[in-house]
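hey so i finally got around to running the thing on that chain from the lab meeting. sorry it took forever, my laptop kept dying and i had to restart like 3 times. anyway pasting the input first so we r on the same page abt which one it is
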Amino acid sequence: MTLELFLTFLTGGSAVSSLIVQALKKTFKNTPSNLLALISSVCVGFIGCLLAYMYMDIPYTLQNVTSALLLGVAMFVGSTCGYDKVIQLLRQFGE
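ok and heres what got predicted. didnt touch it at all, straight out
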């Protein structure tokens, strides 16, 4: 996997994962949001990356599977700090 492809997957997947986390927060109100972000982002990142590999005919080598796992971790970091900080910034500009 190239760096450009990784960043493309990270950008698109983080947007999708953040939306899923917000929907899960409203559904599971007593569950910590970090746990919801961890579960959803790793699933979206890893499974989405493997599906993209299959669609793009990229072989499942050790390096590519490791990149898919790292993509899930990177998406977890992005989904936990991304959405809430963006909303906070937009509210500050609106004042």
